[in-house]
Amino acid sequence: MPTYFRIPHADRAQAKALGARWAKDVELWFAPDALPEVAQALAKHWPAIEPIVPVYVFPGEHTTFGNDPPLALELIPSTCWLTNLRSCLSPEDFKRVRMGIRQRSGKTCEVCKGHEHPDDEIYLDVHPRFEYIEGVQVLRRLVCVCTRCLRAIEFGTAQLHGYRQDAFAHLQQVNGWSAEQAMAHVHAAFEQWAGRSRMEWDVDLSIIEAAGIQVLLPTPEQQKKAWIHLDDIRPADMDISAFMATLALNPRKA
Length: 254
Ligand SMILES: [Zn+2]
Known about the structure:
It is built from 11 helices and 7 strands. The chain is an alpha+beta fold. The chain folds into 2 domains: 3-49, no CATH class; 85-253, no CATH class. α6 (164-175) packs across α7 (179-196). The structure holds zinc ion (ZN). Zinc ion binds at residues 109, 111-112, 114, 145-146, 148-149.
């Protein structure tokens, strides 16, 4: 088991010079198992911390949920306060979950089967997949996904960051879709998003809690602050269908 250290960001060059390595899964510096002298050198400067125990069993998880089509847009309604898992777990617990999901997948994207390519800025991350049912945003599954798949899943965000074309091409490629099929999916996803964004949503993270991990829920006031209502962001002079078309198809973002 490697020895992990909590090393301040400012000390990272010094730690590296002493032989410390960076564990991306858990975002901590460590001394490899086989190099006890590195652990000793690091321990003179920084405290060693408990090893991170990955979590990869989530009782009640639906492990094939959302497999058809393999890659789909999963736009989070603007009235959901929970847009990322990190915000409702402690940093340590988030690391355990992230590490577990990456290991469970064999460090492979579960959607496109791709691997990590840091040189191309393609990484693997944990993605929470939700079902929206009777006013509840239910966490059904945790999926290991690559950056390219994540851009398609979070298509709206990808557009804002200039990745629309890449996301669209990947959507086509992974699903074996024509451009028309992919476009029909994008339109349908935004339409569904608009409908869901008119409702208010509770959150069900019971598969996380069943794994023995504490969920940190915000107060109702904090939750409401996180909402972006569709009608608040829609320009006053634009009707809802034109607004949705803009979100899906703004050529400026392509
Ligand atoms: Zn992928």
